[in-house]
Design goal:
With 341 residues, the protein is mainly β. The protein has no helices and 22 strands.
Length: 341
Amino acid sequence: RMAENGMRLIGRPKRLMRNTARWEGKVVEAPTVIRRPDAFYMLYSGALCCTRRCRYAVGAARSATLLGRWRKFSGNPILSSGNGWRCPGHTGLATDASGAVTALFHAYRSGFGRLAGRQVLAAPLNFRPDGWPQIGEGGVPPAPAAGAAPNEFADDFVGPRLSPEWEWPLERVPGIRVAGGLELRAPVRLRDGSRAAPRFDNGLLAHRISGPRYVAGAVVDRASLAGKEAAGLSAFGLSPFGVGSEALGISVQGRSVIVWRRNGERVRVLARRGTPASDQVHLRLTADGNAYRFEVSPDGAVWRSLGGRLRGRIEESARVALISGGARAAKARFVSARLEE
């Protein structure tokens, strides 16, 4: 039970069920309960949810009382992969004024859909003649429909405010100033008070993508960089379960343009070449699923590849990111950025 203010638990917890079916794997979680005239019904999720090896699905159980005994449906799972979606689960329920119930849950698009992250789906919750619940039709999510517009953009950072589509990790808040360009400052300390390591993407400003194929570009003001300060462009994503992050990027630093890979705090330089002599350095990132290619140009017209075709290990919630780093409190200026999907 919970206290009236919802801020603490009262009494001792009681186990209602555990993972006993093969499809549930090592975990059952994310329960939601609905009361019907004959019984309480629980929708719960089981198996691995959040990597390319996911097996997530939804099961049902019912009980005459809230504390059990809960009996699982012999036809579980009632919702699993199919119809262009993988690993649906973590169900919530909403009831409209007519009493109709809708199930909301997340799932990945099949193929490289995991790179865009889990998406929220909705399907009717109905009850079969034998009383057990079903979500949608056929035990699979509804077929993909036309969704939101692509996340394409072209930003010249004219100001006075940053476009609301840009975002950054909560634990690593950059300094930002927009006025005739973007000034991106790497944080000195993280949210927990610890010192931020001077990695290439210590300061990070990210933008969502819609799918696995895109071309991103950024123009760096080379004169804004001093000493070991670096500025660039990267593909960025969370590691499984949000523990740490991974990135593959290109940075301008001193007289070099560098392609690098980061896994957690470990950074490895993959390729290096001299910086163009122009005042502005154009960078381009082309992504095709988990394959990436980086290019550099003095003018945005003549491009040279750096590092060849690289394989990425970004699992989920991929972003395109403008980055600054390489030195403590690094500061960099970007003239513009764009994304084409």
